[in-house]
Write a structure and sequence with these properties.
alpha/beta
Length: about 250
Amino acid sequence: MLAKRIIPCLDIKDGQTVKGVNFLDIKNVGDPVELGALYAQQGADELVFLDITASHEKRKTLVELVQRIAKHINIPFTVGGGVSELADADALLSAGCDKLSINSALVRNPMLIDDMAKGFGSQFVVVAIDAKLENGKWTVFMNGGRIPTDKELFTWAKEAESRGAGEILFTSMNHDGVKTGFACDALAKLSESLSIPIIASGGAGAMHHFKDVFTLGKADAGLAASIFHFKEITIPDLKNYLAEEGVIIRL
C-alpha cells in the first residue's frame, strides 16, 4: 500500500498566503514561498499553491511566483488558479511546478482534460472539484466557490477520470475552514468509484480527522491550510500520531 500524503495548502491572493472560512472571511497569513519552504523542512509530502482569485478576476497565475517557489522548495508542488488553456499549463510546467490543479476551465471545457493528459501526461493533471452538499446532492461549483454548475460531484469525477485526470482534489465547501472533520462519506464513495488517487480537502481541525480521512474516507492524501498556518498542529507531530495509529506514512 502506498504511503498516505500530508499536503499543506497555500491559498494565494495578491502574492500573499490567505485563509478563509467556507471560502469567505479571507485573512492574510504570510509569504507563500517562506511558508512552503518551512513545511518542506518539517516533512510535508507535497504542497499545493492555489491563486484563489485568478479565475474570478480573469487573470493568470503568476509564473514568476512559481519560479520563486521552485528555487526554494525541494518537494513536489502543485499550482492552480486561472489556468484555461494548454499554453498556461506549458508556462507553469516550464516555470517549475510538478502538477496543475484546474477547476473552472475544465467545467467549462471538459475536453481540456483530454488535451492536457495527452500533451503533458495524466500525472500532471489534478482535477480540482469544489462541491457543496445541498438537499442530499453534491453540486459542483466553479470560480472559487462562487458559481454553482449543473454538474454533480460523483458523475463529474468519474468523467474527469475517464478523460485522463491523474488525481482528484475534492474540497467540501460545507466543511472548508470549520475544522470539524473531512467529508468522509463522500470521500469514501469517490474512492470506491475511482481508480485514481483522491486528495481530501476541507475540514481538518484535529489530528484524528486525518486518521479518519485515511481510514473511513479512504483518501490517498489529506490537504489542510489553517491548522498548519496557525501552528495548531505541526507536521512532525501529525505524522508521528498517524504512524502510532497504524497509518502508513512517510516519516
